[in-house]
Amino acid sequence: MKHLYYAAILTLYDKNCEIDEREQRKYIRFLLEEGVRGFFPCGTSGEYTTLSQKENLKLLQIVLEENNDKVPVIPCASTASFHNTVALIREMEHMGIQAVSICPPYYTPLRQSDILDYYRHILDAVQVDVYLYNIPAFTNPISFETFEKLLLHPKVVGIKDSSGNMKTISRYVAAKSGRRDEFRVMTGTDEMILPALSGGCFGSVSALSGVIPEVHNLLYDTYRNDLTFAQQIQIKIAELASECEKYIFPVGYKFALEARGFAMPAFRQNVVEHISGDDYGQGRERIHMLVDELLAMADKEKVQDREQNRKWA
User: Fold this and answer.
1) With contact defined as beta carbons under 8 Å apart, do 108 and 81 qualify?
2) Cα 66 to Cα 21: distance, rounded to the nearest angstrom
3) pLDDT digits (tens, 9 = 90+) for 84-134
4) With 81 labelled, which of 91, 104, 125, 251 sits at a CA distance of 20 to 30 A?
5) Which sign does the torsion angle of CA 33, 36, 40, 46 carry?
C-alpha cells in the first residue's frame, strides 16, 4: 500500500489580522518546492472556525491556483450546522473539489444518532466523496459504532482521526480490513505518524507536515527499511509538537513556521499579543531550535544518500 500525508495548511495574517494573500501564496509554493505530498486546507490548523465562509473559500482558491493539480487536495468542509456545511461543500464542488473532510457539528452536544443522521443527510445532498473527521477535543466525537455504520456507505472513503488514541485507530483499520480495503484511515496527530503507519494506516494529516514537509517525506520514505532512524525522526517530531502545543492552538505551529522564514505579525487569538515574560520568548526560541534540528536530520540524510550514490556509480 502506498502511503501519503496531507499538510494541514496554516492561515497567515497581515498586521490587521486579515488573510495575507501574498504570504499565503508564497507559503503554498514553498511547501511544493520542499516536496509536500498533499494539501489539507480550511481545517483546524487553518482556524476554520475563526474564518468566514468567504475566507475559507478564498484560502482554498489560493491552494488550488498555486497547486495547479501537482498534489492531491482534500479541504475540510465543516461548520456548526447541516445547511451551512452543505452550502460550503457545494461551493467547493463548483471549484472542482472531488472529496472533502467533515467533522461533526461543534458547540451543541449531539447524540450519536444525530451525528449519523447528519452525515447521511449530507451524503444525500452533495456529490463529493467524504472523509470523516473525528476530533473529539473540539467537536462531538464519532463513536466506533457510528463509524462502522458509515463505513458501509460507498461515498465515505476514509477517516481522519485526531483523537490521539492508537487503540481507536487500530479498531478502524481492523473494521475496514476485508470489507473495504481501499478505505483510507489517517491519523491527525504528528506524535503518532510512525505507530499509525506501522499499524496499517494509509497516512496522516498533520500541522507539522505543513511546516517541515521534507522531514515527513524522510519519515515516510525510510520507516520500512530503517525503523531505528524513523523512530529517531518520530521522537524529534513528537518533541516539537509537544512544544507547539504549549500555546493557544495553532499559535505554536505558527512559531514553527517562523523558523522557515515566514513572519507572524498578528494572530486572531488576540490574547497571544498580551502574553509576555521570559518563558514565552524562550519557548518560541526552543520551537525554532527544534525545527532546525529536524531539518538538519533531513539534510544529513540527503548528503548520505548522495555519497552512497557516488559510491555505486
Assistant:
1) no
2) 11
3) 999 999 999 999 999 999 999 998 999 999 999 999 999 999 999 999 999
4) 251
5) negative
Distance from C-alpha of 139 to C-alpha of 192, rounded to nearest angstrom: 20
Residue pair 88/54 in contact (Cβ under 8 Å)? The answer is no
Q: Is 249 domain-assigned?
A: no
Please give the DSSP secondary-structure letter assigned to residue 49: G
Q: Does 147 fall in a domain?
A: yes
pLDDT one-digit tens code per residue, 48-91: 999 999 999 999 999 999 999 999 999 999 999 999 999 999 99
CATH number at residue 215: 3.20.20.70
Q: What is the pTM of this model?
A: 0.93
Q: Which range, of 128-142, 231-245, 298-312, averages the lowest pLDDT?
A: 298-312
Q: Number of folded domains in the chain? A: 1
Residue 169 belongs to domain spanning: 4-223
Identify the CA nearest to 7 among candidates 99, 103, 74, 92: 74
Domain membership of residue 95 (yes or no) is yes
Contacts of residue 14, Cβ cutoff 8 Å, sequence gap at least 6: 20, 23, 265, 266
What burial class does residue 279 get, using C-beta atoms within 10 Å of its C-beta: 0-12 exposed, 13-18 middle, 19+ buried?
exposed
Yes or no: say if 19 and 11 are a contact pair by the CB < 8 Å rule. yes
pLDDT tens for residues 153-178? 999 999 999 999 999 999 999 999 99
> Quick check: helix, strand or coil at residue 181?
coil
CB 147 within 8 Å of CB 175: yes
Which run of H or E residues covers position 236?
helix 227-244
Residue 305: the pLDDT is 61
Instruction: Tell the burial category of 308 from Cβ atoms under 10 Å away from its Cβ (0-12, 13-18, 19+).
Output: exposed
Residue 140 lies in a domain: yes
Going by the DSSP 8-state scheme, the letter that residue 19 receives in this structure is: B
Closest listed residue to residue 193, CA positions, set 175, 172, 215, 174: 215
